[in-house]
Write a structure and sequence with these properties.
It contains 27 helices and 23 strands. With 679 residues, the protein is α/β, with parallel strands linked by helices. The strands form five sheets. Strands 1, 2, 3, 4, 5, 6, 7, 8, 9, 10 and 11 form an eleven-stranded mixed sheet that branches. The chain has a four-stranded antiparallel sheet with strand order 13-21-17-19, with helices on one face. Helix 4 links the parallel strand 1 and strand 2. Helix 14 crosses helix 24. The radius of gyration is 26 Å and the shape is globular.
């Protein structure tokens, strides 16, 4: 058992998740559909730069023997792992397949390989995160291969491919699907669009084709200047009463029509469309979100009006602001919004999404009814990142000896604390927060004034001082890595969990600190002076509606296992807001949910969805496109299928600590080495 655990840790550290045979066969088949015609008539030269146990090369040879009889296939494989290559050699020898195997660092030797010497590259490159690569290594790779921002080891392997492929050559790439929509994936998206031409894309979602918790994607791209439409297919688990087809998963992926199939005892919806890589409008909204400056003071928030009728006044003032500001977006539609076709990540590239006629029409109608985006009216922040939770966070502070002073212990909101629209509290989890909360910048408290806290922290000094990156950034050894703005915790805020099946946006007035597994929007940062709370109600109403969920799936689309979604800044900032002058009914209903004690039952949720749709100028309900058949229930996903629920936690405690909010690599990326991150 111990050896299995050690092997699993080794695979994770080095990114070694070898390709299952069925998936290798599918990737080989799709790649061979696009190999250069010159290769079909003579020799087909194929490289796997990270070949592992040889599964991809051997699968390609078998499929080429079937589909391209008479073609001589020359295979070349590289890998650092000599034990894996020994397995690959034995497998090839047993199958009578000749392969030119190389033990070594392909990234190091690739510069000596002649340009254009391969007809095809088939690869499942190692996925190694920045914190496992090390910041220095990551920066060197970025410089060598012209990469930007946070990288993983997949990026340089993709960057090499265009140079090594002959004109018309084909890349068959298997990697995590997160590159489709995340900021960190902008390198791969940019390379595939600027150096290659994608022709087929398969988002295999939560199909669990790997033993590891990997959501894979298959991309077929050609080295050509001629760009055709790229086929885009996705497969995600659903619960449905629809008729299930008898086609297997891989067969369904190649059909022209989507449908429902079973695989491994689970039901999946297969959707078929084309790849959309650009925007419908301009990048105006994204630029506004990046340069947003808060326009509301704390006093404005405290004195903000409440009540059902405040939405009308909000709309009037919003109209005044929109019409008076130079260059502001007018009421009645965000004509140049920038969110429609893809999601802009602030200069690194648009996120990719699936395009279908009905879906595009629906997005166009939502766009026409959009006043501003969430990112234009609110600053969206992640919660605190301590990087030492066992020291700073506890629900048993009374049992600690010594117990830190009460003034430094704050209630902590985590993803476990949410009910619809509210955060009830009462779980007793508190965080030791050693900062002056009257200051807008990160100012640590004087520990000499808090002797119990000082003694407690000194008792954990070895652990805390071991976080070398804290000291390297000029911080005190006892500080939290990402403390956010201390003075804003006392201000009301909209809070929502990072990962959840459905949107769970709620209002907090308790003054609690928000943990790193959640995001938040302080009312001090919401951009219409005096109307922040009412605008917050509108934000919650849209986000928690069927339209908000449908929009997320259409434009952001970052789903995890079992229907879970990531609600992070770069996605939430794209959500649309209707004209507040048309949204009084939404504000009124949300006020009843938040302040009036009204239970959001099925009828009231239906009313909310109708009011949100009407505010955008759509018909009753969500006004969804026929491709998705969106239903009104907030418990259904954007395809109109019930989301597969899971009551148990995701994985073990150790696995959960590896999710966003606990993973140092997700927090700081390459800049961890010698960086000063935030105030």
């Amino acid at each position: 058992m111990g050896s299995e655990i050690a092997a699993a840790r080794d695979r994770k550290r080095h990114g070694r998740h070898y390709t299952p045979p069925a998936l290798a066969r599918f990737l080989a088949q799709r790649l061979l559909e696009h190999v250069p015609r010159s290769g079909v008539s003579g020799v087909l030269r194929v490289l796997d730069p990270a070949c592992g146990d040889g599964e991809l090369l051997l699968a390609l040879h078998r499929e080429a023997a079937i589909g391209l009889p008479g073609v001589q296939v020359e295979l070349v494989g590289y890998d650092l792992d000599d034990e894996a290559l020994a397995v690959a050699r034995e497998r090839a020898r047993d199958a009578g397949i000749g392969v030119d195997w190389h033990v070594g660092d392909f990234l190091a030797v690739s510069g000596g390989i002649t340009d254009g010497c391969f007809d095809a590259i088939i690869t499942n490159p190692p996925y190694v995160r920045t914190q496992q690569l090390g910041g220095v290594t990551a920066q060197l790779l970025s410089k060598q291969f012209g990469l930007r921002g946070r990288i993983d080891l997949t990026h340089p392997f993709v960057a090499i491919a265009p140079r090594l492929l002959c004109p018309g050559g084909v890349l068959g790439l298997l990697c995590a699907n997160r590159f489709l929509t995340t900021k960190a994936g902008a390198n791969i998206r940019g390379l595939l669009l600027s150096e290659l031409a994608p022709v087929e894309l398969y988002d295999l979602g939560d199909t669990k084709l790997f033993e590891a918790a990997v959501l894979p994607a298959v991309t077929i791209a050609k080295r050509t200047s001629h760009r055709d439409t790229c086929r885009y297919v996705s497969a995600y688990e659903v619960a449905t009463s629809e008729t299930i087809g008898r086609t297997g998963l891989f067969e369904a992926l190649t059909e022209n029509q989507g449908g429902f199939i079973t695989h491994g005892g689970r039901t999946f919806a297969v959707e078929v469309g084309t790849l959309a890589t650009g925007e419908l409008g301009s990048d105006r909204a994204a630029a506004a979100a990046e340069s947003f400056e808060p326009g509301v003071m704390v006093a404005d928030v405290v004195d903000a009006p409440r009540g059902a009728g405040a939405g009308v006044e909000l709309g009037r003032r919003a109209a005044e602001v929109a019409s008076s500001e130079s260059g502001a977006l007018g009421i009645g539609g965000l004509v140049e919004s920038g969110w429609g076709g893809g999601q802009f990540d602030g200069g690194s590239g648009w996120a990719w999404r699936m395009s279908r006629p009905g879906l595009d029409d629906w997005l166009g109608r939502v766009r026409a009814g959009t006043w501003k985006t969430f990112g234009e009216v609110a600053r969206i922040r992640v919660g605190i990142k301590t990087t030492a939770d066992r020291v700073f966070i506890s629900d048993r502070w009374g049992e600690r000896e010594p117990c830190p002073e009460a003034e430094l212990l704050f209630d902590l909101i985590t993803h476990h604390d949410f009910e619809p629209w509210r955060i009830p509290g009462g779980r007793g989890i508190r965080v030791l927060y050693p900062y002056d909360t009257t200051r807008s910048r990160r100012i640590p408290v004087d520990l000499s004034k808090y002797p119990s806290a000082a003694a407690y922290l000194r008792g954990h000094r070895e652990t805390l001082a071991g976080r070398k990156y804290v000291a390297a950034s000029g911080r005190e050894w006892f500080e939290i890595w990402v403390p956010q703005r201390p003075h804003l915790w006392r201000v009301p805020k909209v809070v929502f969990p990072d990962i959840s099946e459905r949107p769970r946006f709620a209002l907090d007035r308790s003054g609690a600190v928000v943990n790193g597994d959640c995001y938040w929007m302080s009312l001090a940062d919401i951009g219409l002076r005096g109307d922040a709370e009412q605008l917050a109600y509108l934000l919650m109403g849209v986000a928690n509606s069927a339209l908000g969920l449908h929009f997320y799936d259409a434009v952001c689309g970052n789903r995890l296992y079992s229907g879970r979604r990531r609600w992070i800044t770069q996605y939430v900032s794209r959500l649309p807001l209707p004209d507040p002058a048309r949204s009084a009914g939404i504000v009124e209903l949300v006020t009843e949910f938040v302040d009036g004690g009204r239970v959001p039952d099925a009828d009231s949720v239906r009313v909310l969805n109708e009011r949100v749709a009407a505010a955008f100028g759509l018909r009753s309900g969500c006004g969804a496109d026929p491709d998705h058949r969106q239903q009104d229930s907030a418990g259904e996903d954007a395809s109109g299928f019930d989301i597969v629920e899971r009551d148990e936690p995701v994985g073990s405690q150790r696995q959960r600590e590896g999710e966003s909010g606990h993973d140092l690599g997700d927090q700081v990326g390459v800049e961890i080495v010698g960086a000063v991150v935030g105030p």
